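Try this one yourself first.
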C-alpha cells in the first residue's frame, strides 16, 4: 500500500542530501535539539525513505555545522540586509527558513535532480531562486546581481569535487566576486583517501560516494593562499558545542591533541576575496 509519501530516487552525491537532512531533522525533532527547524522535520517526514537503515543512527554533526553557517549568514545579513547569499549544493537544506531576512536575495545552486526534489517541498520565489546547474558551470555567476554584498556558502560540497576543480572555482570567485565571503567545510586527507580507495562503508546498506578532495587542517591557509595570493581573509571557524553523541568528546579531543589536531578534524573555513582582484592562472600547478 502506498504511504502517500514521496520516494526519492537519488543516487551518488545527490543522495547525500538525504543523509544531511536526516541528521538535521532528527536534531530539530528533539525537545532538547540545538536546531529549530520545523521545515526540515516536515520534509524528512514527507519522504518515504529508510534513513536509519541506510545511514545508521542519527547524529548531530550536520546540525552543529548548519548552526555555524546560520550564525555566519545572520551576521552578514545584520550588516547587509540587501545582501545576496549563494548556497552551492543546497540540497534539502532549509536554511533560508532559519535565517530569514526581508530583503536578501538567496540563490540555491544544485544539480538538476537535486533541485527537482527540492522543489517538491520548497517553492522558489523572487527572493529565493533556484538554479539547476552544477556549481562548476559558471553560468550561475550571471544570476548574481552586481553591486550587492555577497556571501557564498558550500556546506558538504567541496569534498565531492576534484581538487583542481576546487582550485579553479576559488580563482574564478576571486576574479568575479571581489569583496565576497565564502564559507565551506573540508574533510581531512585520511577520510578522503578512505572513500577513494576502499569506500567508506557507513552501514551494511550504504557506502558513501568518493570524496576526492581532502585537506589537512594545517595546510588550509597556505594552500588557499597559494591558489589566490590576494585573499583578504582566511579564518577557521570554531566548531560549536556538540549536544550529545561521540562528537561531544571527540571534537574537543581532536582539537586539543597535538598532531591529531593537524591531521584528524574536519574544518570550516571562511575566506574573503579582495575587491578588484584578478588571478594569473597556472594550469600546470596541480
Ligand atoms: C552532502 S549534500 C549537502 C546538501 C546541503 N548542503 C546540506 O547541508 O544539507 C551534497 C549536495 O551537493 C550537491 N552537489 C553535488 N555535486 C554538485 C555540483 N557539481 N554542483 C552543485 N551541487 C552539487 C548534491 O546534489 C547535494 O545536494
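Now uncover the answer:
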Amino acid at each position: 500500500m502506498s504511504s502517500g509519501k514521496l520516494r526519492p530516487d537519488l543516487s551518488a552525491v545527490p543522495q547525500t542530501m538525504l543523509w544531511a537532512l536526516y541528521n538535521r531533522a532528527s536534531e530539530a525533532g528533539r525537545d532538547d535539539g540545538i536546531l529549530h527547524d520545523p521545515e526540515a522535520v516536515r520534509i524528512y517526514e514527507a519522504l518515504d525513505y529508510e534513513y536509519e537503515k541506510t545511514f545508521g543512527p542519527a547524529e548531530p554533526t550536520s546540525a552543529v555545522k548548519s548552526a555555524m553557517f546560520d550564525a555566519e549568514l545572520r551576521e552578514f545579513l545584520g550588516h547587509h540586509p540587501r545582501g545576496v547569499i549563494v548556497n552551492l549544493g543546497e540540497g534539502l537544506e532549509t536554511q533560508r527558513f532559519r535565517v530569514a531576512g526581508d530583503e536578501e536575495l538567496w540563490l540555491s545552486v544544485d544539480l538538476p535532480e537535486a533541485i527537482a526534489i527540492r522543489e517538491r517541498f520548497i517553492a522558489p520565489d523572487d527572493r529565493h531562486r533556484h538554479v539547476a546547474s552544477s556549481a562548476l558551470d559558471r553560468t550561475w555567476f550571471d544570476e548574481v546581481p552586481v553591486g550587492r554584498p555577497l556571501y557564498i556558502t558550500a556546506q558538504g560540497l567541496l569534498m565531492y569535487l576534484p581538487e583542481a576543480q576546487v582550485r579553479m572555482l576559488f580563482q574564478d570567485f576571486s576574479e568575479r566576486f571581489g569583496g565576497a565571503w565564502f564559507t565551506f567545510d573540508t574533510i581531512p586527507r585520511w577520510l578522503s583517501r578512505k572513500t577513494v580507495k576502499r569506500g567508506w562503508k557507513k552501514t551494511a546498506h550504504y557506502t558513501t560516494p568518493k570524496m576526492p578532495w581532502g585537506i589537512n587542517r594545517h595546510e588550509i591557509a597556505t594552500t588557499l593562499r597559494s591558489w589566490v595570493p590576494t585573499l583578504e581573509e582566511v579564518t577557521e571557524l570554531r566548531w560549536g558545542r556538540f549536544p550529545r553523541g561521540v562528537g561531544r568528546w571527540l571534537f574537543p579531543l581532536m582539537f586539543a591533541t597535538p598532531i591529531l589536531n593537524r591531521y584528524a578534524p574536519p574544518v570550516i573555513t571562511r575566506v574573503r576575496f579582495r575587491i578588484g582582484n584578478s588571478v594569473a592562472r597556472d594550469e600546470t600547478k596541480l
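Discussion: Residues 124 and 130 are 6 Å apart (CA to CA). DSSP finds eleven helices and nine strands in the chain.
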